[in-house]
Amino acid sequence: MSGRLHGKVAIITGGASGIGAAMVTRFAAEGARVLFTDLASQQTAAESLARNLGNAVIFRVGDVTSASDCNHAVSTACELFGPPTVLVNNAGTAIVGGVEELSEDDWDRQFDVNVKSVYLMCRPVVPLMRKAGGGSIINIASESAFIAFPMHPAYCASKAAVLHLSRSLGVRYAADRIRVNALCPGTIDTPLYRSFLSKQADPDAVHKMVLAMHPLGLGTPEDIASAALYLASDESRYVTAAPMHVDGGSTAM
Ligand SMILES: NC(=O)c1ccc[n+]([C@@H]2O[C@H](COP(=O)([O-])OP(=O)(O)OC[C@H]3O[C@@H](n4cnc5c(N)ncnc54)[C@H](O)[C@@H]3O)[C@@H](O)[C@H]2O)c1
Predict the structure, then answer these.
(1) Looking at the 3D structure of the chain, how many domains does it have?
(2) Rounded to two decimals, what is the model's pTM?
(3) Which residue among 29, 97, 158, 172 sits deepest, i.e. has the most Cβ atoms within 10 Å of its Cβ?
(4) Is 155 noted as a catalytic residue in this protein?
């Protein structure tokens, strides 16, 4: 590794599993100091990941739907490492079901975890980045921001909201040299995808359909971590308010 994030302090939400864990690992290997959060239910996996990566990586339990947990994660990163210059809003959930099946609570939870969380994390981070002279905020959106999957309309709507929120924040904070981008993965083989499949009436048929939609097949968490690394680094200094498609070609189909 070549130290592409040397000197950076990164906060990554939902870092215990899948894409988040790949980003924690890659960012640390590239020289960043990383604080990552996740739910208490992921504590064992998260602590083991942090232990394997050494002193530059710290885990804190934190629910991204809780303002106090978000504020606490940011203040802990400041105390231990200094002000964050990279924030990755990665934590997410995918609630399956059409509008007739979804409860109001499901709908609210989908938007709280995927969208409100971006606001709750950006709120304490933006003033710190402004004071530090800039930073990079990476919001993990999805191909679902562009493709109208019929199985999970609330998820699709939440990711479209993350995309547009990223655009608005990117324009708003450009003068502060705070870049905000939406990284839009295709289908990536993670626990989230496996859980999505398990809720389908015919998981094999859905998996075949998903494969057929991706000219390059399914992606890996490392594919997304590589793109996030570029957005976190100064190599992307002229990129803001933009979607970055890392989807094996799905959105071109
Ligand atoms: N896997 C895919 O195909 C895919 C495609 C496009 C976008 N994404 C997005 O990528 C991101 C990561 O997904 P993944 O596939 O790695 O899933 P994953 O389930 O493997 O990891 C998500 C992590 O977020 C954590 N999380 C969930 N709710 C949380 C909360 N309230 N507070 C804190 N942490 C919470 C989970 O505990 C988990 O560790 C999500 O935003 C997801 O929507 C995934």
Answers:
(1) 1
(2) 0.98
(3) 158
(4) yes
